[in-house]
């Protein structure tokens, strides 16, 4: 069995839901159905920022060999207005650390967009921040030649029927869409293992 690690925040953890409803658990179910030799580990932590993930990473990497690592951090950075440069540096640190310890591992990066309506908050500064925040993920993916999920919350953000009462965290139906968004990129990489090694980056 190969190890598939999902490293993220409450969106990955499945905040407010049973563990089996989180998108990593749903992807595990799909892997089992297709008889793909992967064990998915959900290392989502609610409230985690990219800086928190940077601090937590070593303890996670010490637990398992890593074959595939899905990085889905940054939403809480956006909510807190953390400078884009800091988020970028933290995510690059995580990418570098995974590659250093597990050079054969395949990394996948999930993109995010600023999650709130900027209107009430006002000002061009926030609009500029939102644009920079969205762009940082694709820039990182391109720089590091990573398979890229363009927007983890595609089809879920802003849809009341797909989120919990807080309007921020996906409900069980929303998590199914997150699983599909990730699988569109991740699935072809994992299916390649039927022929042997992971597809090259």
Task: Please summarize what this structure is.
The protein is α/β, with parallel strands linked by helices. It is built from seven helices and five strands. The chain has helices at residues 10-13, 23-33, 50-61, 75-80, 84-101, 124-144, 172-191; strands at residues 2-8, 38-44, 68-72, 106-110, 148-149.
Overall description:
Helix content is 46%, strand content 13%. It is α/β, with parallel strands linked by helices. The protein has one domain: Rossmann fold. It has a five-stranded parallel β-sheet with strand order 2-1-3-4-5, with helices on both faces. Helix 2 (23-33) packs across helix 7, helix 3 (50-61) packs parallel to helix 5 and helix 5 (84-101) packs parallel to helix 6.
SSE layout and pairings?
Elements: E1 2-8, H1 10-13, H2 23-33, E2 38-44, H3 50-61, E3 68-72, H4 75-80, H5 84-101, E4 106-110, H6 124-144, E5 148-149, H7 172-191
Parallel strand pairs: 1-2, 1-3, 3-4, 4-5
Q: What is the annotated CATH architecture?
A: 3-Layer(aba) Sandwich
Strand percentage lies at: 5-15%
* Gross geometry: globular
CATH homologous superfamily title: SGNH hydrolase
- The class by helix and strand makeup works out as alpha/beta
How large is the radius of gyration?
16 Å
Count the E strands. 5
- Give the averaged pLDDT, no decimals: 91
* Annotated CATH topology: Rossmann fold
Main CATH class: Alpha Beta
State the end-to-end CA separation: 20 Å
Q: So how many helices? A: 7
Portion of residues in helices? 40-55%
Major sheet description: 5 strands, parallel
Main β-sheet, spatial strand arrangement: 2-1-3-4-5
Helix-strand sequence = EHHEHEHHEHEH
Runs in which pLDDT lies below 50 for 5 or more consecutive residues are: 195-201
Number of separate domains: 1
């Amino acid at each position: 069995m190969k190890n598939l690690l999902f490293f993220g925040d409450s969106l990955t953890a499945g905040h407010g839901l049973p563990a089996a409803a989180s998108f990593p658990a749903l992807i595990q179910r799909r892997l089992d159905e297709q008889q793909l030799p992967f064990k998915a580990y959900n290392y989502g932590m609610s409230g985690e920022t990219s800086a928190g993930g940077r601090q937590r990473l070593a303890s996670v990497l010490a637990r398992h060999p890593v074959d595939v690592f899905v990085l889905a951090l940054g939403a809480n950075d956006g909510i807190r207005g953390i400078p884009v440069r800091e988020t970028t540096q933290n995510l690059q640190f995580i990418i570098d650390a995974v590659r250093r310890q597990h050079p054969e591992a395949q990394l996948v990066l999930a993109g995010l967009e600023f999650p709130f309506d900027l209107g009430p908050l006002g000002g061009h500064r926030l609009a500029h921040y939102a644009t920079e925040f969205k762009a940082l993920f694709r820039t990182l993916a391109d720089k590091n030649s990573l398979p890229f999920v363009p927007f983890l919350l595609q089809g879920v953000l802003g849809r009341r029927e797909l989120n919990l009462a807080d309007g921020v965290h996906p409900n069980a139906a929303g998590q199914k869409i997150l699983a599909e968004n990730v699988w569109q990129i991740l699935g072809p990489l994992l299916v390649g293992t039927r022929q042997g090694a992971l597809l090259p980056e």
